[in-house]
Amino acid sequence: MRVIVVDDSVIVREGLRRLLEAEGHEVAGTAARPEQVDDAVTAARPDVVVLDIRMPPTFTDEGIQVATALRNVTPAPGILVLSQYVIPEYATRLLEGGARGMCYLLKDRILQPLQLSQAVQRIGEGGTVVDPDVVGELLVLKHGGDPLDLLTGQEREVLRLMAEGLSNKGIAERLYVSANTVGTHIQHIFRKLDLPDTATDNRRVLAVLAFLRDRS
Q1: Which strand ranges, in their side-by-side order, compose the sheet holding 78-83?
Q2: What stretch(es) of the chain map to CATH 1.10.10.10?
Q3: Which residue, 63, 88, 141, 191, could crosslink 216 as a Cys pair with Cβ 3.0–4.6 Å?
Q4: Is 2-131 assigned to CATH 3.40.190.10?
Q5: Separation CA 30–CA 190 (nearest Å)
């Protein structure tokens, strides 16, 4: 994938460059501040933009703001937002405007072999990835009358892995079950969450959004 890296720390930028290039991606440009992103994207036409969630001038949610603005770029690149901490609200905001090609990943995750590369590949192909620690944080919260309470333990696990961006095959391999079994669980999830009968990809995104929105 052709990638742009955005982070105010030169050490982080160069570290990400080396990790990505070592895993076969092309780093077509870098930026240190949010206001430099538009020009960098225009010049490089990346498949994916990797950016820190906290950047100048306020060091709060600049990454989410940049991601929101990049939705209007044609063609829109995949967006991988890196965060130091688990902030479910930011993950929800990132996905609410459209989850396709979006990723929320903790910085610690990029030190694990292939985690960063696989996330870049998935969102560059239009997938959605939510860090498992963020999903786990959302799972422990309880709300009365939540339709997610209708899901079985196995269905919740399937939904959690859907939020990580795994395909049916990937979920089957992780849970040591057949792809047919995963498909059945997903159909049960769609039915219990009363999701509209649209394209499967869209329903997967709706399921993940329901999971995040009702847990934040």
Answers
A1: 26-31, 2-6, 48-52, 78-83, 102-106, 128-130
A2: 141-213
A3: 88
A4: no
A5: 40
| Residue 130 confidence class, pLDDT cut points 50, 70, 90 | confident
Q: Residue 128: name the closest of 30, 202, 46 by CA.
A: 202
Q: What does the pLDDT average to over 50-58?
A: 92
Q: What are the DSSP calls for 17-60, one per residue?
A: HHHHHHTT-EEEEEESSGGGHHHHHHHH--SEEEEESS-TTTSS
Give tens-digit pLDDT for 20-41: 999 999 999 999 999 999 999 9
Span(s) in the chain for CATH 3.40.50.2300: 2-131
Topology annotation, domain 141-213: Arc Repressor Mutant, subunit A (1.10.10)
Name the β-bridge partners of 103: 80, 129
Find how far residue 208's CA is from the centre of its chain: 11
Mean pLDDT, residues 83-109 taken together: 81
Q: Could you give the 3-state DSSP secondary structure of residue 105?
A: strand
